[in-house]
Amino acid sequence: MTLVQxxxxxxxxxxPPDTAEDFDxxxxxxxxxxxxxxxxLITLDVTAEVIREATERGCSLILSHHPVIFHPLKRIxxxxxxxxxxxxxxxxxxxxxxxxxxxxxxxxxxxLGIQKQExxxxxxxxxxxxxxxxxxxxARALALLCRERLGLSGGRVYDAGRPVRKLVLCCGGGxxxxxxxxxxxxxxxxxxxxxxxVVDAANMGVSMIDLGHFETERHFLPMMAELLSKxxxxxxxxxAERCRPLFEYLxx
Length: 252
What we know:
Distance between the termini: 52 Å
Strand order of the largest sheet: 5-6-8-9-10-7
Shape: elongated
Structural class: alpha/beta
Mean pLDDT: 96
Strand content: 15-25%
């Protein structure tokens, strides 16, 4: 019988927790390491809807990318996410920036056809320097290609007006890395880009492609299901159907 602690051990082998950023909170955050697991639900975020889905589908464990407990808690109310988890008896393992560094950013590069060259200095391993899938694309053309490859309905781009020959890629929210770009980088691809970061990029002559935080990390679900199923074939690893972006793209 597979236990929560067995799955935690394998997650830690794939993405060592000591590589997580100092601000992060990873590992077994709620529950019991000795709890048997016949079914595990994988999600980006732990929401009330995801908790209901886990219960309905007979799961005893949730594996989330974003930590279910991120800020210190001073109280736990019955209808809060931690309260619902405690009442339901569900355990939660969260694997965040350790997975970004070990697995997730590389998978995003693979999906986009970006050739990774090296880790971006100053990024703590969260971002990489790479080459675009096609040489000499404009930032707008590259953004449209990325949108197509990820199957997105939207996205944002600032085109600085020069071909993209070298770029920096970061899954999730990596807009702040605009201040760490090498001098010969033409573009930053990430999500959650702030206005002031784009202004700085414009002043530097660097293009910015914002594909969305959720959208650049949602491949966490199939990736972890595939990897963990190999180690625990007797356990079902399910992708959460109620794990979905909260923002929607407005169309005319």
